[in-house]
Design goal:
There is one protein chain. The chain has 5 helices and 12 strands. The chain is of the alpha+beta class. The strands form 2 sheets. The chain has a 7-stranded mixed β-sheet, with helices on both faces. A 5-stranded antiparallel β-sheet has the order 11-10-9-8-12. A hairpin with a 2-residue loop joins strand 6 and strand 7.
């Protein structure tokens, strides 16, 4: 279905690898980059992924031929060692901005560190895997899943939604795919041009619970805090009782 996709981009998706079925787009993309068989911005996309993973080894559940599942390989990023979470922010903002445009007048936020939520339900997730050669950054593989046409009424154990559910009718996956790649391409070029402050500001301002009172599970206790932002290492900065503390992903949980 995606074999003839020709995105109007400069970097992202100019080299596109398509499979109707694959175990993992991230796995294949990583193999291509490891063996120097892929150029910067190469995209691996599939209609059906049999062994997809989300954050912290969680399974990414997706019906065949209903959603968008793809991975992007990125290399030649400067300042990565001093600001390692910047690429993650860049991609996440691109998806957030696209979904905001696609679903105007809808509550769209980034749930730290890199999920997109619509009306407090997950619609997209990102998994970034970085590879280094010694101390030098080699490449990143960014796995992206977007719920497009899958209904979730029979998945009550998953707090998820899709573009189909939000719009009320089936969406064109190819058109959405091309538009998303263009949005990501625009942000990657901003990153390569050094617009770090703009990326950081956009990421923080779109966080679910930013500068508002929200609940987190911290040390097995529910605590009411305010989200201040996210630092260069991807740690979430929370304020509680007029004190600020930074937390790594996996050590706390936001309660929706």
């Amino acid at each position: 279905m995606f074999a003839k996709v020709k995105p109007n981009t400069q970097i992202i998706g100019q080299n596109l690898v398509y499979f109707t079925r694959i175990d993992s787009t991230n796995k294949l993309a990583a193999e291509l980059f490891k063996n120097n068989l892929a150029e910067n911005g190469t995209v691996v996309v599939t209609d059906y992924q049999t062994d997809g993973k989300g954050q912290r080894e969680k399974e990414w559940e997706s019906n065949p031929y209903e959603n968008l599942i793809f991975s992007i390989g990125i290399k030649n990023i400067t300042n990565f060692s001093t600001n390692p979470f910047l690429l993650n922010k860049c991609i996440t903002i691109a998806l957030c901005n696209y979904i905001k445009e696609f679903l105007p007048n809808t509550q769209v936020h980034i749930k730290w560190p890199n999920d997109i939520f619509v009306n407090n339900r997950k619609i997209s997730g990102i998994l970034v895997e970085n590879t280094f050669s010694g101390q030098q950054f080699a490449y990143s593989i960014i796995g992206i899943g977007i719920n497009v046409n899958q209904p979730f009424e029979h998945y009550q154990h998953i707090n998820a939604t899709s573009l189909f559910e939000q719009k009320g009718y089936v969406q064109d996956r190819v058109e959405i795919f091309e538009d998303v790649l263009l949005e990501i391409d625009t942000n990657i070029i901003e990153l390569m041009n050094g617009n770090f402050d703009g990326i950081n500001e956009q990421f923080n301002s779109n966080l679910l619970g930013y500068h508002t009172s929200c609940s987190f599970l911290i040390n097995d206790k529910e605590v009411l805090v305010s989200i201040i932002g996210c630092d260069i290492y991807g740690r979430l900065i929370l304020e509680h009782n007029n004190k600020q503390e930074a937390y790594l992903h996996g050590t706390i949980k936001q309660i929706i």
